[in-house]
Design a protein that fits this description.
PH-domain like, four-stranded antiparallel β-sheet, 6 helices, binds zinc ion
Length: 182
C-alpha cells in the first residue's frame, strides 16, 4: 500500500503516511485560526510615492525644459502631457497595490496578504524580527517590517510588509504580539 498523497510506501494501516497526516493536521489547525490580534497595513503616502520616483520626475522636467528651449509648442505640450500621464498612472498603480497589502497576526500564524497572493508563517518558525528603512522611507517615517525564519538568507524565505507608515511605532506593536504568541 502507498500513501495516497505523496506515494511513499506505507508500513502500518491506513492510506496516508505519518508525514502527510501531520501536514494535514497542521493545515487544519492553521485554517481554523481566524482570530485577528493585529493588522499592519502598507500606507499610501503621495509625498513618498513622488520621492520614490524622484529621478524619473527630474528627468521628465529636463525633457520638458529642453522642449521649451526648442520653442516647439507641440513638443512642449506633448512632453508635459506625457509626464503628467505617467505620474497619474504610477500613483494609481501604487494606490491600488498598497490598498491590498497587509500583514495579519492571528493566534498561531502570521499572514501577508497581497492582491493575488497569501503567505503564511507560524509564530514558532519566526527567529528574527526587524524593520528596514531606505533614506526615502526614513524621510517619510515609513519602512518595511520583516519576519524571518532561522538561517534565512533572502527575504523570500520570510514575511515582509513594505511601506508601513509610522514604522517605529508599528514595529513595537508587532514585537509585543510576537512576544505574547510565540
Ligand atoms: Zn505521504
Amino acid at each position: 500500500m502507498k500513501c495516497k498523497v505523496c506515494g511513499r510506501e506505507l508500513k502500518g494501516k491506513g492510506n496516508i503516511c505519518t508525514y502527510c497526516y501531520n501536514e494535514k493536521q497542521k493545515q487544519k489547525r492553521l485554517d481554523k485560526d481566524k482570530n485577528t490580534n493585529l493588522v499592519i497595513n502598507s500606507k499610501y503616502k503621495p509625498i513618498y510615492e513622488f520621492l520614490k520616483i524622484v529621478d524619473f520626475i527630474i528627468l521628465g522636467i529636463i525633457i520638458v525644459m529642453s522642449c521649451f528651449v526648442s520653442e516647439n509648442v507641440l513638443a512642449i505640450i506633448a512632453s508635459i502631457v506625457l509626464l503628467l500621464a505617467a505620474l497619474v498612472v504610477w500613483l494609481l498603480y501604487r494606490r491600488n497595490k498598497i490598498a491590498n497589502t497587509s500583514m495579519i497576526f492571528y493566534d498561531t500564524k502570521v499572514v501577508v496578504k497581497t492582491k493575488d497572493k497569501e503567505k503564511v508563517m507560524e509564530y514558532k518558525d519566526i527567529a528574527d524580527i526587524s524593520y528596514y528603512q531606505s533614506w526615502k522611507q526614513r524621510i517619510c517615517k515609513m519602512g518595511d517590517i520583516r519576519l524571518m525564519p532561522e538561517n534565512s538568507i533572502v527575504i523570500m524565505q520570510g514575511l515582509n510588509i513594505p511601506d508601513v507608515g509610522n514604522v517605529v511605532k508599528e514595529f513595537e506593536k508587532v514585537k509585543e504580539v510576537i512576544a505574547e504568541k510565540a
